[in-house]
Write a structure and sequence with these properties.
TIM Barrel; 12 helices; two-stranded parallel sheet; 12% strand; alpha/beta
Length: 301
Amino acid sequence: MGLRAAARRCALKTASVLRLNDLALALQARRDAGPRIVVVEMHETLLAHADRLREHLDWVSNHFTLIDPATFGYAWERKAQTWPGSKPAVLFTFDDGRESNYHVAAPILESFGARGIFFIAPQFIGLRSKEAKNFYYSKIDIRNCGRPGMTDTAGATEEVWTPMTPQQLADLTRRGHWIGNHSFSHSRLAGLSASDLQREVRESREQIAAWTGKPVDAFAWAYSWDAIDTAAWQLIRETHRFCFTPCPGTVDLAGDSPHLIWRKEIESYYAPSEYQFMYSGLVDPIWSGKRKALKKMLGRQ
């Protein structure tokens, strides 16, 4: 076990033993805490993890209000809570455009009365067989992460790296989900030329709109929190209502920007101790330095 993994396991165990997760959740639910939203970033949602994902959402529904993208957008317009009850809200987002999101995540989310945002890379959409696998391991899972159910390149099944089709994207849109822009080719945006940025941001948005028949309001950049620069961010702001980051935090409608929306990576295969820690907000202080650095890097104080 590496040092980072050992530290993470220790933090999870400590939070569980001391019931820090429960205390932090209670503080989030206070009426005077202000309107807050947890935005979840998921990736693959394999069939093998479907039962765990249902249990995950069942727990979330007891502590939060699951919302849809339309409610999320309206809350930003009002800068106020637009969902019923006193619980903070949760919005689910899914990155990359895997077909497992269509077959597993979307139906489970709908069973809880919610809808999500599916961020897709148009160059990946519709690929099959060897082309899909090559794109997945060269552009998406570039480090072959070895998550449960996908231990290595040789042992992974087609479910891991098969993307959705344009028809499935259109169907999700009809069912009330949003299809978001994740750049055309799942590329790092930092340092790209002006013409490459146009392709990755503007032309990608146009392609998604052509498939769904709907405007594309949301963009989420790929890879790390700093895989972007000011030029890319400015173009995203010009072409999309919302910009989602791969930087953890809890969204404060009163103080945060719709063009820097924090997201917490909480995967479908996480154990209860893992996802409860992430939802509790205890992880937020750990990433406060990165959030400040990102704002400074983009010129937003």
